[in-house]
């Protein structure tokens, strides 16, 4: 493995050392305090509108880089040995995760959802301008706020879910449709479901969901994944630099913060991730902190970034 390939698996620092530094710093004490049960609930927010505004401001490649590390972290997306594997990218944003998947495996079919219609339009525009083989037949974006409404029945219908998503497609009488029908997939003429997907990529998406909604969100993922299928996870880790920049007034829960643009973020410990996924029925295959030092070119300061990397499987 080359140095460049090893970069994404490296440990530039020990997470326990970072924890010691954070917990010893009195200026960061507000991050460690329990969130009082009596604290007033934050006002209801239009999550889709908040993320729509976010993507309108930050949809260019200058902000969202293509996640080329993805196939190094999750090589199963390329070498799974399946013919025409189906991937569900949850919270696709502007397509920075979809693009390397389509580039890396010319047989893969990607179904990509987001709660923001603006984000989906940017994703379609970006992929439409690139020279990616047969992208029009392998990329199907659709609008879906899965944490609130669940996934549509054409991914996996009721009987499929009850039978743990058998390998063969079945037919459902359900009339549920997505708000934005898939290109080339007319649900009004064909009520067959896909029978589930082989992979789910959940990349910096779960943290954007209110913590109390995460169990339902993961249960939905479990339902539309085929038996033996993999959920590939990467998200913000506890004591990441981004978390430590939040002021005390931005806390809306324990390890949960809201930005000025009304988008929010949660920062995961390994224990919380493990509890959430195991309670949803998944088997843990990999779970660790990725601790990477990056250099702020403008200030010249070294920043300690923490992400959680995980691979989880639906039992056969």
Textual characterization of the structure:
This protein has a seven-stranded mixed beta sheet with strand order 3-2-1-4-5-10-9. A three-stranded antiparallel beta sheet has the order 6-7-8, with no helix packed on it. The radius of gyration is 20 Å and the shape is globular. 27% of the residues lie in helices and 22% in strands. The protein is of the alpha/beta class and 316 residues long.
Provide a quick synopsis of the model:
The chain is an alpha/beta fold and 316 residues long. The chain contains twelve helices and ten strands.
Q: What is the chain-wise order of helices and strands?
A: HHHHEHEHHEHHEHEHEEEHEE
List the strand order in the largest sheet. Answer: 3-2-1-4-5-10-9
Number of helices: 12
End-to-end separation in angstroms reads 32 Å
- The number of distinct structural domains comes to 1
Q: Could you name the CATH class?
A: Alpha Beta
The biggest sheet, with number of strands, parallel, antiparallel or mixed sense and barrel status, is: 7 strands, mixed
Number of strands: 10
* Integer-rounded radius of gyration: 20 Å
* Low-pLDDT ranges: 1-7, 165-181, 183-190
Q: On the 0-100 scale, what is the average pLDDT?
A: 83
CATH superfamily: Vaccinia Virus protein VP39
Helix share, percent: 25-40%
Our estimate of the beta-strand percent is 15-25%
Q: The CATH topology, please?
A: Rossmann fold
Keywords:
single chain, 316 residues, alpha/beta, Rossmann fold, 7-stranded mixed beta sheet, 3-stranded antiparallel beta sheet, 12 helices, 10 strands, globular, disordered N terminus
């Amino acid at each position: 493995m080359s140095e460049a390939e090893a970069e994404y698996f490296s440990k530039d620092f020990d997470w326990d050392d970072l924890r010691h530094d954070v917990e010893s710093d009195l200026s960061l004490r507000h991050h460690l305090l329990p969130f009082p049960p009596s604290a007033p609930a934050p006002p209801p927010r239009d999550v889709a509108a908040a993320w729509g505004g976010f993507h309108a401001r930050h949809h260019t490649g200058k902000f969202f880089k293509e996640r080329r590390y993805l196939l190094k972290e999750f090589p199963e997306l390329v070498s799974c040995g399946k013919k025409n594997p189906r991937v569900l990218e949850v919270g696709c944003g502007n397509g920075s995760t979809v693009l390397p998947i389509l580039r890396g495996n010319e047989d893969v079919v990607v179904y990509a959802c987001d709660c923001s219609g603006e984000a989906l339009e940017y994703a379609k525009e970006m992929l439409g301008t690139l020279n990616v083989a047969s992208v029009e037949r392998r990329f199907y974006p659709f609008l879906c706020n899965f944490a609130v409404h669940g996934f549509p029945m054409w991914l996996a219908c009721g009987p499929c879910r009850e039978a743990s998503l058998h390998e063969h497609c079945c037919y459902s009488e359900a009339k549920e449709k997505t708000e934005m029908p898939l290109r080339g997939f007319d649900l009004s003429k064909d009520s067959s479901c896909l029978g589930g997907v082989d992979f789910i990529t959940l990349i910096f998406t779960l943290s954007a969901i209110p913590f109390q909604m995460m169990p339902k969100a993961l249960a939905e993922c479990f339902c539309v994944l085929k038996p033996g299928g993999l959920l590939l996870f990467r998200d913000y880790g506890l004591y990441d630099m981004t978390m430590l920049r939040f002021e005390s007034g931005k806390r809306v829960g324990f390890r949960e913060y809201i930005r000025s643009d009304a988008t929010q973020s949660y920062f995961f410990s390994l224990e919380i991730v493990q509890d959430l996924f195991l309670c949803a029925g998944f088997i843990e295959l990999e779970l660790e902190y990725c601790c990477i030092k990056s250099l702020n070119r403008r200030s010249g300061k070294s920043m300690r970034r923490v992400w959680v990397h995980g691979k989880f499987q639906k039992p056969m």
